[in-house]
What does this fold into?
Amino acid sequence: MGLAWSFFNPVLMLAVYTFVFSVVFKARWAGGSESKTEFALVLFAGLIIYNLFAECVNRAPGLIVSNVNYVKKVIFPLEILPIVAFGSAVFHFLISVIVWLAFYLLFFGVPPATIILLPIILLPLVLLTLGISWLLASLGVYLRDVSQIIGVVTTVLMFLSPIFFPISALPEQYRPFMQLSPLTFVVEQSRAVMIWGELVNWQTWLIQVVLSINIAWLGFALFQKTRKGFADVL
It folds into this structure.
C-alpha cells in the first residue's frame, strides 16, 4: 500500500485512542464539550506533536550504525542524517495534519485563523529535536543500548506530557513536574491555536526558542567532536 500507510496509520490510532479514552474511560477535556469528536481532535492534535518528536528521537541512535558505508567508504556529511530523518518525520506529520484538518472541516467547519501560527509554535520543537537527534546519533555508536533506553524514555514521556489529559486535570502540586516535559509547551500551544483560537504566549515561546537553540548547538557540537572515532568503533 506504500504511502497509503502514512494516511491510515494516524486514522487508526485516532480511532483506537478515542475509543479507549472517551468511551471506555469516559474522559472529557477541560473547557471542552461532551462531544467525543471534539475529544478525538484534541487528543489527536497532541499525538501529532508527540509522534513528530518520538519518531526522530527513536530513530536517532541507529542512524550512524545503520549507515556504516557512509562512515568508512565515502566522504559524506554525516550530520545531515538526523536532518533527513527529521524530514521523513515531517512528511508523516503533514499527513496527520491533513487528516486532522479533514475531520475538523467535516464536523466543525473552518478552524480558527490562529492555526496559521502553528509553524511558529513548532520552531522550538524542531530545534530541540535536531539537537537531541545529533546527540543520540553519536552516542548510539559508542553505547549500543541507547536505542533501548530511548524507546522506554519516549513512552514514559508520552504519559508525562499533556497528550491524553490537560495539565489542569493534575493536582496542583504535580503540575510543575509536567511543565518540565519538553513537549508540554508545544502541545498546549498547538491546541490553543488549532482548536481554541487563542494566541501564542510569546514570552514563554521566546524562552523555549533560546533553550532549544542552545540544545541544538550543544548536540551538533558533540556530534562533530565524537564523529572522528566513528570509523574506529564501527
